[in-house]
Amino acid sequence: AAVKHTKRKNYFSLVYGDEANNSEDEHTDEDIGGLFKVLKKKAAGIAEEKKAINKKDCSASGPTVESSLDLEELGEEIQDAFVTGTWDASEDAK
Amino acid sequence: MSSLQYEGCNNFRMRLVLATLSGKSVKINQMRPEEDDPGLKDFEISFIRLLDKVTNGTKTVINETGTQIIYRPGLLLGGGIDHDCHVARPIGYYLEMLMCLAPFTKEPLRAVLRGVTCDKDDPSVDLLKLSVFPVLKRFLGTDEGLELKISKRGAAPDGGGEVLFCCPCRQKLRPVKFLQPGKIKRIRGVAWSVRVSPAFVNRLVDSTRSVLNKFLTDVYIYTDHMKGNQSGKSPGFGLTLVAETTEGAFLAAEEVSNARKSGEGPSIPEDIGKKAAVSLLQEIHRGGCVGSMAQSLAALMMVLGQQDVSKVQMGELTPYTIQFLRHIRDFFQVTFSIKKDQKPVAPSTDDEEEPQELRVGADKLILTCVGVGYSNVSKAVR
Protein backbone atom coordinates (compact mmCIF):
# COMPACT_ATOMS: atom_id res chain seq x y z
CA ALA A 1 0.00 0.00 0.00
CA ALA A 2 2.91 2.34 0.75
CA VAL A 3 4.22 2.10 -2.80
CA LYS A 4 0.81 3.02 -4.12
CA HIS A 5 0.69 6.03 -1.87
CA THR A 6 3.93 7.55 -3.11
CA LYS A 7 2.92 7.11 -6.71
CA ARG A 8 -0.42 8.80 -6.28
CA LYS A 9 -0.74 12.38 -5.24
CA ASN A 10 -3.23 12.87 -2.49
CA TYR A 11 -5.19 15.78 -3.89
CA PHE A 12 -7.39 16.19 -0.87
CA SER A 13 -4.46 16.84 1.45
CA LEU A 14 -2.81 18.95 -1.23
CA VAL A 15 -5.74 21.33 -0.90
CA TYR A 16 -6.85 20.98 2.69
CA GLY A 17 -3.35 20.52 3.97
CA ASP A 18 -2.00 19.90 7.41
CA GLU A 19 -4.70 18.06 9.31
CA ALA A 20 -4.93 15.43 6.60
CA ASN A 21 -1.25 14.47 6.67
CA ASN A 22 -0.11 15.19 10.19
CA SER A 23 1.06 11.65 10.63
CA GLU A 24 3.44 11.90 7.69
CA ASP A 25 5.10 15.03 9.03
CA GLU A 26 6.37 13.25 12.11
CA HIS A 27 8.32 10.86 9.95
CA THR A 28 10.07 13.57 7.97
CA ASP A 29 11.73 15.06 11.06
CA GLU A 30 15.22 13.74 10.99
CA ASP A 31 16.92 12.80 14.23
CA ILE A 32 20.64 13.35 14.66
CA GLY A 33 22.21 11.23 17.36
CA GLY A 34 18.80 10.68 18.85
CA LEU A 35 18.88 14.09 20.54
CA PHE A 36 18.55 16.84 17.97
CA LYS A 37 15.96 17.36 15.33
CA VAL A 38 16.60 19.00 11.99
CA LEU A 39 14.29 21.97 11.78
CA LYS A 40 15.89 23.70 8.81
CA LYS A 41 13.35 22.55 6.29
CA LYS A 42 10.43 23.64 8.39
CA ALA A 43 11.89 27.08 9.03
CA ALA A 44 12.47 27.61 5.34
CA GLY A 45 8.89 26.64 4.69
CA ILE A 46 7.63 29.20 7.14
CA ALA A 47 9.70 31.98 5.58
CA GLU A 48 8.32 31.01 2.20
CA GLU A 49 4.81 31.14 3.57
CA LYS A 50 5.42 34.59 5.02
CA LYS A 51 6.43 35.81 1.61
CA ALA A 52 3.49 34.15 -0.09
CA ILE A 53 0.90 36.06 1.91
CA ASN A 54 1.94 39.28 0.24
CA LYS A 55 2.27 37.96 -3.27
CA LYS A 56 0.40 39.38 -6.21
CA ASP A 57 -3.23 38.35 -6.16
CA CYS A 58 -3.97 36.90 -9.56
CA SER A 59 -5.66 33.85 -10.94
CA ALA A 60 -3.22 33.10 -13.75
CA SER A 61 -1.91 29.59 -13.38
CA GLY A 62 1.74 30.41 -13.93
CA PRO A 63 4.28 27.92 -15.20
CA THR A 64 3.08 24.35 -15.17
CA VAL A 65 4.83 21.02 -15.23
CA GLU A 66 4.03 20.48 -18.85
CA SER A 67 5.78 23.69 -19.88
CA SER A 68 9.02 21.73 -19.71
CA LEU A 69 7.86 19.65 -22.66
CA ASP A 70 8.64 20.86 -26.13
CA LEU A 71 5.91 21.29 -28.68
CA GLU A 72 6.20 17.85 -30.22
CA GLU A 73 6.11 15.97 -26.92
CA LEU A 74 3.22 18.09 -25.78
CA GLY A 75 1.37 17.41 -29.01
CA GLU A 76 1.90 13.70 -28.64
CA GLU A 77 0.60 13.64 -25.09
CA ILE A 78 -2.67 15.32 -25.97
CA GLN A 79 -3.43 13.90 -29.38
CA ASP A 80 -6.42 11.86 -28.17
CA ALA A 81 -8.04 14.96 -26.69
CA PHE A 82 -9.08 15.99 -30.20
CA VAL A 83 -11.87 14.51 -32.31
CA THR A 84 -9.20 13.25 -34.65
CA GLY A 85 -7.66 11.05 -31.93
CA THR A 86 -8.75 7.70 -30.57
CA TRP A 87 -12.11 7.68 -28.78
CA ASP A 88 -12.88 5.94 -25.50
CA ALA A 89 -14.25 2.46 -25.46
CA SER A 90 -17.53 3.82 -24.13
CA GLU A 91 -18.15 6.50 -26.74
CA ASP A 92 -16.59 5.06 -29.86
CA ALA A 93 -19.20 4.94 -32.61
CA LYS A 94 -17.22 2.42 -34.69
CA MET B 1 -20.87 38.90 14.80
CA SER B 2 -18.64 36.29 13.26
CA SER B 3 -15.47 37.63 11.75
CA LEU B 4 -12.63 35.96 9.95
CA GLN B 5 -9.03 37.04 10.18
CA TYR B 6 -6.35 36.83 7.55
CA GLU B 7 -2.89 38.13 6.85
CA GLY B 8 -1.36 39.55 3.70
CA CYS B 9 -2.57 41.02 0.48
CA ASN B 10 -2.61 37.78 -1.49
CA ASN B 11 -6.11 36.39 -2.12
CA PHE B 12 -7.51 39.80 -1.30
CA ARG B 13 -10.36 39.70 -3.81
CA MET B 14 -11.66 36.25 -2.93
CA ARG B 15 -11.73 37.14 0.75
CA LEU B 16 -13.91 40.17 0.17
CA VAL B 17 -16.14 38.39 -2.32
CA LEU B 18 -16.69 35.36 -0.11
CA ALA B 19 -17.32 37.68 2.82
CA THR B 20 -19.97 39.47 0.78
CA LEU B 21 -21.64 36.22 -0.23
CA SER B 22 -21.56 34.67 3.23
CA GLY B 23 -22.40 37.88 5.09
CA LYS B 24 -19.42 37.43 7.40
CA SER B 25 -17.06 40.26 8.13
CA VAL B 26 -13.40 39.86 7.49
CA LYS B 27 -10.30 41.48 8.91
CA ILE B 28 -7.02 41.44 7.03
CA ASN B 29 -3.76 42.41 8.70
CA GLN B 30 -0.20 42.72 7.45
CA MET B 31 -0.95 44.17 4.06
CA ARG B 32 2.53 44.67 2.56
CA PRO B 33 4.03 45.90 5.84
CA GLU B 34 7.64 45.67 4.69
CA GLU B 35 7.42 47.38 1.34
CA ASP B 36 8.61 50.91 0.61
CA ASP B 37 5.03 51.79 -0.17
CA PRO B 38 3.15 49.82 2.47
CA GLY B 39 -0.51 49.01 2.65
CA LEU B 40 -3.31 48.83 0.13
CA LYS B 41 -2.61 49.78 -3.45
CA ASP B 42 -4.80 51.94 -5.65
CA PHE B 43 -6.23 49.04 -7.60
CA GLU B 44 -7.34 47.36 -4.38
CA ILE B 45 -9.07 50.55 -3.29
CA SER B 46 -10.70 50.62 -6.70
CA PHE B 47 -11.90 47.06 -6.13
CA ILE B 48 -13.38 48.00 -2.76
CA ARG B 49 -15.19 50.91 -4.41
CA LEU B 50 -16.61 48.53 -6.98
CA LEU B 51 -17.93 46.25 -4.24
CA ASP B 52 -19.38 49.31 -2.59
CA LYS B 53 -21.33 50.08 -5.76
CA VAL B 54 -22.73 46.58 -6.10
CA THR B 55 -23.81 46.38 -2.46
CA ASN B 56 -25.75 48.47 -0.02
CA GLY B 57 -24.54 49.11 3.51
CA THR B 58 -21.00 47.85 3.14
CA LYS B 59 -18.61 49.23 5.72
CA THR B 60 -14.89 49.28 5.19
CA VAL B 61 -12.40 50.51 7.74
CA ILE B 62 -8.79 50.94 6.73
CA ASN B 63 -6.14 51.97 9.22
CA GLU B 64 -3.79 54.93 8.70
CA THR B 65 -0.97 53.05 7.06
CA GLY B 66 -3.33 50.97 4.99
CA THR B 67 -1.89 47.72 6.30
CA GLN B 68 -5.10 46.64 7.97
CA ILE B 69 -8.61 46.46 6.60
CA ILE B 70 -11.89 45.51 8.21
CA TYR B 71 -14.64 44.73 5.77
CA ARG B 72 -18.26 44.36 6.83
CA PRO B 73 -20.40 43.38 3.87
CA GLY B 74 -23.82 44.76 3.06
CA LEU B 75 -26.55 43.38 0.86
CA LEU B 76 -25.97 42.64 -2.78
CA LEU B 77 -28.02 45.03 -4.84
CA GLY B 78 -26.76 44.85 -8.40
CA GLY B 79 -28.63 46.94 -10.95
CA GLY B 80 -26.89 49.42 -13.19
CA ILE B 81 -23.40 50.41 -12.13
CA ASP B 82 -20.61 52.34 -13.71
CA HIS B 83 -17.00 51.99 -12.60
CA ASP B 84 -13.61 53.28 -13.63
CA CYS B 85 -11.21 50.46 -12.88
CA HIS B 86 -7.74 51.46 -11.84
CA VAL B 87 -5.38 50.84 -14.74
CA ALA B 88 -2.70 49.07 -12.67
CA ARG B 89 -4.78 45.92 -13.16
CA PRO B 90 -6.92 45.07 -16.19
CA ILE B 91 -10.70 44.90 -16.14
CA GLY B 92 -10.45 41.11 -15.87
CA TYR B 93 -9.19 41.51 -12.30
CA TYR B 94 -12.43 43.19 -11.32
CA LEU B 95 -14.77 41.39 -13.68
CA GLU B 96 -13.67 37.94 -12.53
CA MET B 97 -15.02 38.70 -9.08
CA LEU B 98 -18.09 40.49 -10.35
CA MET B 99 -19.00 37.27 -12.14
CA CYS B 100 -18.97 35.46 -8.79
CA LEU B 101 -21.37 37.97 -7.29
CA ALA B 102 -23.68 38.70 -10.22
CA PRO B 103 -26.02 35.67 -9.92
CA PHE B 104 -26.86 36.59 -6.32
CA THR B 105 -27.86 40.23 -6.65
CA LYS B 106 -31.30 41.72 -6.05
CA GLU B 107 -31.60 43.22 -9.51
CA PRO B 108 -29.90 41.85 -12.62
CA LEU B 109 -26.46 43.36 -12.86
CA ARG B 110 -25.62 45.72 -15.67
CA ALA B 111 -22.09 46.99 -15.20
CA VAL B 112 -20.09 49.34 -17.35
CA LEU B 113 -16.40 48.97 -16.59
CA ARG B 114 -13.67 51.19 -17.95
CA GLY B 115 -9.94 50.60 -17.95
CA VAL B 116 -7.41 48.23 -19.45
CA THR B 117 -9.18 45.41 -21.30
CA CYS B 118 -6.21 43.09 -21.51
CA ASP B 119 -2.90 42.78 -19.73
CA LYS B 120 -0.48 40.14 -18.56
CA ASP B 121 -1.23 37.95 -15.52
CA ASP B 122 -4.95 38.61 -15.35
CA PRO B 123 -7.51 37.15 -17.75
CA SER B 124 -8.64 39.49 -20.48
CA VAL B 125 -12.29 40.24 -21.08
CA ASP B 126 -12.18 38.07 -24.20
CA LEU B 127 -10.92 35.11 -22.21
CA LEU B 128 -13.59 35.54 -19.55
CA LYS B 129 -16.24 35.66 -22.23
CA LEU B 130 -14.95 32.61 -24.07
CA SER B 131 -14.11 30.32 -21.17
CA VAL B 132 -15.95 31.46 -18.03
CA PHE B 133 -19.28 32.39 -19.61
CA PRO B 134 -20.10 28.83 -20.68
CA VAL B 135 -19.57 27.69 -17.07
CA LEU B 136 -21.74 30.49 -15.70
CA LYS B 137 -24.38 29.54 -18.23
CA ARG B 138 -24.49 25.96 -16.97
CA PHE B 139 -25.19 27.03 -13.42
CA LEU B 140 -27.71 29.70 -14.40
CA GLY B 141 -29.48 27.29 -16.71
CA THR B 142 -29.73 29.77 -19.56
CA ASP B 143 -27.67 32.44 -21.23
CA GLU B 144 -30.60 34.79 -21.57
CA GLY B 145 -29.49 38.20 -20.42
CA LEU B 146 -25.88 37.08 -20.08
CA GLU B 147 -23.78 39.45 -22.08
CA LEU B 148 -20.28 40.87 -22.32
CA LYS B 149 -19.79 43.55 -24.89
CA ILE B 150 -16.45 45.14 -25.58
CA SER B 151 -17.29 48.57 -26.90
CA LYS B 152 -13.78 49.97 -26.64
CA ARG B 153 -10.47 48.23 -26.26
CA GLY B 154 -7.71 49.70 -24.18
CA ALA B 155 -4.25 48.25 -23.88
CA ALA B 156 -1.92 48.68 -20.90
CA PRO B 157 -0.59 50.96 -19.47
CA ASP B 158 -3.11 53.75 -20.11
CA GLY B 159 -6.25 51.79 -20.85
CA GLY B 160 -9.24 53.65 -22.18
CA GLY B 161 -11.27 50.52 -22.86
CA GLU B 162 -14.90 50.00 -21.99
CA VAL B 163 -16.96 46.86 -21.54
CA LEU B 164 -20.56 46.17 -20.66
CA PHE B 165 -21.30 43.15 -18.49
CA CYS B 166 -24.88 42.00 -18.00
CA CYS B 167 -25.89 39.01 -15.91
CA PRO B 168 -29.28 37.74 -14.79
CA CYS B 169 -29.76 36.91 -11.11
CA ARG B 170 -31.24 33.73 -9.72
CA GLN B 171 -33.02 32.65 -6.60
CA LYS B 172 -31.31 29.29 -6.74
CA LEU B 173 -28.57 27.85 -8.85
CA ARG B 174 -28.81 24.51 -10.55
CA PRO B 175 -26.68 21.62 -9.35
CA VAL B 176 -24.36 20.55 -12.12
CA LYS B 177 -22.96 17.20 -13.15
CA PHE B 178 -20.30 17.63 -15.77
CA LEU B 179 -17.95 14.69 -15.98
CA GLN B 180 -17.26 14.00 -19.62
CA PRO B 181 -15.32 16.74 -21.37
CA GLY B 182 -15.70 15.11 -24.79
CA LYS B 183 -13.29 15.70 -27.63
CA ILE B 184 -12.10 19.00 -28.99
CA LYS B 185 -13.95 19.67 -32.20
CA ARG B 186 -12.98 23.21 -33.04
CA ILE B 187 -10.75 26.07 -32.11
CA ARG B 188 -11.92 29.66 -32.22
CA GLY B 189 -10.24 32.85 -31.24
CA VAL B 190 -10.01 36.58 -31.35
CA ALA B 191 -6.95 38.44 -32.55
CA TRP B 192 -7.13 42.08 -31.61
CA SER B 193 -5.00 45.11 -32.07
CA VAL B 194 -5.26 48.79 -31.21
CA ARG B 195 -3.10 51.69 -32.30
CA VAL B 196 -0.75 49.47 -34.30
CA SER B 197 -0.72 48.48 -37.96
CA PRO B 198 -3.86 46.51 -38.90
CA ALA B 199 -1.58 43.93 -40.53
CA PHE B 200 -0.58 42.76 -37.05
CA VAL B 201 -3.78 40.80 -36.52
CA ASN B 202 -3.20 38.84 -39.72
CA ARG B 203 0.34 38.04 -38.69
CA LEU B 204 -0.97 36.82 -35.34
CA VAL B 205 -3.53 34.59 -37.03
CA ASP B 206 -1.08 33.13 -39.53
CA SER B 207 1.53 32.21 -36.94
CA THR B 208 -0.94 30.62 -34.52
CA ARG B 209 -2.59 28.65 -37.32
CA SER B 210 0.77 27.27 -38.35
CA VAL B 211 0.93 25.52 -34.96
CA LEU B 212 -2.71 24.61 -34.42
CA ASN B 213 -3.52 23.29 -37.89
CA LYS B 214 -1.38 20.24 -37.16
CA PHE B 215 -3.96 19.19 -34.59
CA LEU B 216 -7.24 20.29 -36.07
CA THR B 217 -8.40 21.79 -39.33
CA ASP B 218 -11.40 23.59 -37.88
CA VAL B 219 -9.54 26.65 -36.66
CA TYR B 220 -11.10 30.05 -37.15
CA ILE B 221 -9.82 33.22 -35.60
CA TYR B 222 -11.74 36.45 -35.77
CA THR B 223 -9.78 39.61 -36.28
CA ASP B 224 -10.68 42.72 -34.41
CA HIS B 225 -8.76 45.86 -35.24
CA MET B 226 -10.29 48.80 -33.47
CA LYS B 227 -9.80 52.35 -34.63
CA GLY B 228 -10.38 55.90 -33.53
CA ASN B 229 -12.03 56.50 -30.20
CA GLN B 230 -12.65 52.75 -29.79
CA SER B 231 -8.96 52.01 -29.57
CA GLY B 232 -8.04 53.34 -26.15
CA LYS B 233 -4.92 55.25 -25.23
CA SER B 234 -2.03 52.80 -25.70
CA PRO B 235 -0.84 50.58 -28.52
CA GLY B 236 -1.12 46.86 -28.10
CA PHE B 237 -2.24 43.58 -29.61
CA GLY B 238 -3.04 40.11 -28.45
CA LEU B 239 -4.67 36.82 -29.17
CA THR B 240 -7.20 34.78 -27.22
CA LEU B 241 -7.85 31.18 -28.26
CA VAL B 242 -10.53 28.77 -27.16
CA ALA B 243 -10.92 25.05 -27.82
CA GLU B 244 -14.50 23.80 -27.81
CA THR B 245 -15.34 20.16 -27.19
CA THR B 246 -18.21 18.00 -28.33
CA GLU B 247 -19.74 18.18 -24.83
CA GLY B 248 -19.53 21.95 -24.55
CA ALA B 249 -16.40 22.36 -22.46
CA PHE B 250 -14.28 25.38 -23.28
CA LEU B 251 -10.55 25.61 -22.69
CA ALA B 252 -8.95 28.95 -23.36
CA ALA B 253 -5.54 30.57 -23.39
CA GLU B 254 -4.18 33.89 -24.45
CA GLU B 255 -1.11 35.98 -25.02
CA VAL B 256 -0.70 39.72 -25.11
CA SER B 257 1.99 42.10 -26.29
CA ASN B 258 4.33 43.80 -23.82
CA ALA B 259 2.96 47.09 -22.62
CA ARG B 260 4.65 50.29 -23.70
CA LYS B 261 7.16 51.50 -21.12
CA SER B 262 7.10 48.12 -19.38
CA GLY B 263 10.81 47.81 -20.09
CA GLU B 264 10.44 44.50 -21.87
CA GLY B 265 10.82 45.81 -25.40
CA PRO B 266 8.36 45.54 -28.25
CA SER B 267 6.68 42.21 -28.98
CA ILE B 268 6.62 40.54 -32.37
CA PRO B 269 3.20 39.31 -33.58
CA GLU B 270 4.62 35.98 -34.78
CA ASP B 271 6.01 35.23 -31.32
CA ILE B 272 2.78 36.18 -29.61
CA GLY B 273 0.80 33.99 -31.99
CA LYS B 274 3.03 30.98 -31.40
CA LYS B 275 3.09 31.48 -27.65
CA ALA B 276 -0.69 31.69 -27.54
CA ALA B 277 -0.98 28.45 -29.50
CA VAL B 278 1.43 26.69 -27.16
CA SER B 279 -0.35 27.91 -24.06
CA LEU B 280 -3.63 26.67 -25.53
CA LEU B 281 -2.05 23.25 -26.00
CA GLN B 282 -0.84 23.36 -22.41
CA GLU B 283 -4.32 24.25 -21.29
CA ILE B 284 -5.62 21.27 -23.27
CA HIS B 285 -2.99 19.14 -21.57
CA ARG B 286 -4.37 20.29 -18.24
CA GLY B 287 -7.84 19.64 -19.62
CA GLY B 288 -11.04 19.02 -17.73
CA CYS B 289 -14.61 20.16 -18.24
CA VAL B 290 -13.87 23.70 -17.13
CA GLY B 291 -10.83 25.75 -18.02
CA SER B 292 -8.22 26.73 -15.47
CA MET B 293 -9.59 30.26 -15.22
CA ALA B 294 -13.11 29.01 -14.55
CA GLN B 295 -12.17 26.42 -11.90
CA SER B 296 -12.70 28.71 -8.96
CA LEU B 297 -16.00 30.07 -10.26
CA ALA B 298 -17.26 26.56 -10.90
CA ALA B 299 -16.28 25.51 -7.37
CA LEU B 300 -18.05 28.50 -5.87
CA MET B 301 -21.25 27.90 -7.84
CA MET B 302 -21.22 24.26 -6.78
CA VAL B 303 -21.11 25.28 -3.14
CA LEU B 304 -23.74 27.97 -3.49
CA GLY B 305 -26.23 25.68 -5.21
CA GLN B 306 -29.22 23.86 -3.83
CA GLN B 307 -28.74 21.09 -1.30
CA ASP B 308 -27.83 18.64 -3.94
CA VAL B 309 -24.69 16.96 -5.17
CA SER B 310 -22.65 18.66 -7.86
CA LYS B 311 -19.84 16.91 -9.65
CA VAL B 312 -17.42 18.53 -12.05
CA GLN B 313 -14.33 17.14 -13.67
CA MET B 314 -11.39 19.52 -13.74
CA GLY B 315 -7.79 19.46 -14.79
CA GLU B 316 -4.98 19.86 -12.23
CA LEU B 317 -5.99 22.61 -9.83
CA THR B 318 -4.22 25.93 -10.16
CA PRO B 319 -2.60 27.45 -7.05
CA TYR B 320 -5.32 30.09 -7.12
CA THR B 321 -8.08 27.48 -7.12
CA ILE B 322 -6.43 25.67 -4.21
CA GLN B 323 -6.46 28.90 -2.23
CA PHE B 324 -10.05 29.46 -3.27
CA LEU B 325 -11.12 26.03 -2.02
CA ARG B 326 -9.44 26.69 1.32
CA HIS B 327 -11.25 29.99 1.64
CA ILE B 328 -14.55 28.36 0.74
CA ARG B 329 -13.98 26.01 3.64
CA ASP B 330 -13.36 28.99 5.95
CA PHE B 331 -16.45 30.88 4.89
CA PHE B 332 -18.97 28.14 4.14
CA GLN B 333 -17.57 25.11 6.03
CA VAL B 334 -17.76 23.06 2.87
CA THR B 335 -15.00 20.74 1.80
CA PHE B 336 -14.84 19.12 -1.58
CA SER B 337 -14.13 15.52 -2.25
CA ILE B 338 -11.26 15.50 -4.73
CA LYS B 339 -10.55 12.26 -6.52
CA LYS B 340 -8.45 11.38 -9.46
CA ASP B 341 -10.55 10.47 -12.46
CA GLN B 342 -9.91 7.23 -14.31
CA LYS B 343 -8.15 7.63 -17.60
CA PRO B 344 -10.30 6.82 -20.59
CA VAL B 345 -9.19 3.71 -22.42
CA ALA B 346 -9.16 2.88 -26.08
CA PRO B 347 -11.57 0.23 -27.36
CA SER B 348 -9.84 -3.08 -27.00
CA THR B 349 -9.01 -5.12 -30.02
CA ASP B 350 -8.98 -8.91 -29.88
CA ASP B 351 -5.23 -9.46 -29.85
CA GLU B 352 -4.56 -6.95 -27.05
CA GLU B 353 -5.03 -7.96 -23.43
CA GLU B 354 -4.15 -4.66 -21.74
CA PRO B 355 -6.50 -1.80 -22.56
CA GLN B 356 -4.57 1.18 -23.91
CA GLU B 357 -4.91 4.46 -22.05
CA LEU B 358 -5.80 7.42 -24.20
CA ARG B 359 -3.35 10.26 -24.51
CA VAL B 360 -5.37 13.13 -23.12
CA GLY B 361 -2.69 14.92 -21.12
CA ALA B 362 -2.37 15.30 -17.36
CA ASP B 363 -4.41 13.65 -14.61
CA LYS B 364 -7.97 14.81 -14.31
CA LEU B 365 -9.76 15.31 -11.02
CA ILE B 366 -13.36 14.96 -10.01
CA LEU B 367 -14.58 17.53 -7.53
CA THR B 368 -17.72 16.66 -5.65
CA CYS B 369 -19.62 18.64 -3.08
CA VAL B 370 -23.07 19.16 -1.66
CA GLY B 371 -24.45 22.66 -2.05
CA VAL B 372 -25.18 24.64 1.09
CA GLY B 373 -28.71 25.39 -0.09
CA TYR B 374 -27.90 29.03 -0.61
CA SER B 375 -30.84 31.01 -1.80
CA ASN B 376 -30.86 34.58 -2.90
CA VAL B 377 -33.29 36.12 -0.43
CA SER B 378 -32.96 39.63 -1.77
CA LYS B 379 -34.18 38.80 -5.26
CA ALA B 380 -37.74 40.00 -5.73
CA VAL B 381 -40.22 37.27 -6.61
CA ARG B 382 -42.32 38.22 -9.56
From TrEMBL, chain B:
PANTHER family attached to this UniProt entry: RNA 3' TERMINAL PHOSPHATE CYCLASE, RNA 3'-TERMINAL PHOSPHATE CYCLASE-LIKE PROTEIN
Any Pfam family the entry gives: RTC
Cited InterPro entries: RNA3'-term_phos_cycl_insert, RNA3'_phos_cyclase_dom, RNA3'_phos_cyclase_dom_sf, RNA3'_term_phos_cyc, RNA3'_term_phos_cyc_type_2, RNA3'_term_phos_cycl-like_CS, RNA3'P_cycl/enolpyr_Trfase_a/b, RPTC_insert
Protein name: RNA 3'-terminal phosphate cyclase-like protein
Domain of life the protein comes from: Eukaryota
Family of this protein: Belongs to the RNA 3'-terminal cyclase family. Type 2 subfamily.
Alphabetical UniProt keywords: Nucleus, Ribosome biogenesis
Compartments, as annotated in UniProt: Nucleus, Nucleolus
Keyword Protein transport among UniProt keywords: no
Gene of this entry: LOC101852126
